[in-house]
Amino acid sequence: MKDILSLKLYTRVARLGSFSAAAREFGLSQSQVSRIIADLESDLGARLLTRTTRAVVLTDAGAEFLSRLDPILTALEDAGQSVREGSELRGMLRMSMPSSVAIREVIPRVAPFLARHPELRLQMLLGDRPQDLVRDAVDVAIRLGNLVDSSATARLMTHIQRVIIAAPEYIERHGAPATPDELKQHRIVGGPASVVPAGWKFSRGDEDVTVELEAHFSTNENEGAVAAAIAGIGITSTSEWACRRELADGSLVRLLVEWQTADIPVHAFFPMGRATRAAGRAVVEYLTADFRREERAGSFRV
């Protein structure tokens, strides 16, 4: 077990580029981690890390060793998982996703999954900005929109509808756009989900329209864009997930409902590929099944 701990510690030091950061994760002192890694290097007869006053950097041998460790550690974990009574998952599972997706859709769904696996610890890294998934040891990242890297290891979980929304108070003051082109006469709220620079795309029958818009108010968090729309600042475009509670209670209304907008794909992205831990695969299966039950009920399409 000591050898396995040293290997796990090494992978975290290598990805974080810091002995102190890895020490905090494992509840050890920095000197303990440094000594364990030094013993590992001594056993291997190779220098894995170059230590400087500013950073910890992988050597060529260290990078090669790291690339071979991931599937081995995953296989060890899966082997232990296979013989545990009731196939109970345990350990730490790290997930990354946009804040609104977590708060509105994922966190409310995971309680039964966690109750089924009481020894599993789930850590969610939230934010609309891209993260270094490997450095942060993320097992599963949930991403909305088309994947930038089509060769990435990913699974399509569902599609959600894109909606154009505004507060009733805004519509009372400024009127509702009757066509996509009339959006140019309105105040626009920009956010991560609104893709303002690329233009908003609409279709109706054989007619396709792309409207390029300039945001009058913008934010780097989708929740901020929805809040701005609720406050009556302007019109925004987002996923149905991000605002369906507000659509239900009337604090937001849908606009241009006779026009179709492209659905937003929801993917589970596995940074470690085939080396993804069993818990990561299991939570994706669970969430996908729950999304599809809702799809069958007619809320959104898969």
Amount of helix:
25-40%
Give the number of helices. Answer: 10
CATH 4th-level superfamily of the domain at 162-262: Periplasmic binding protein-like II
Mean pLDDT: 86
Widest sheet, order of strands: 4-3-5-14-6
Radius of gyration computed on alpha carbons: 23 Å
The rough form would be described as elongated
Order of helices and strands: HHHEEHEHHEEEEHEEEEHEHEEH
Percent strand equals: 15-25%
E-strand count: 14
Architecture (CATH level 2) name of the domain at 162-262: 3-Layer(aba) Sandwich
Which blocks of ≥5 consecutive residues have pLDDT under 50? none
In short:
The chain is an alpha/beta fold and 302 residues long. It has helices at 2-16, 19-26, 30-44, 60-83, 99-106, 111-116, 168-174, 222-230, 244-249, 278-296, and strands spanning 49-51, 56-58, 91-97, 120-126, 140-144, 154-160, 162-166, 189-190, 200-204, 207-211, 217-218, 236-239, 253-255, 264-269.
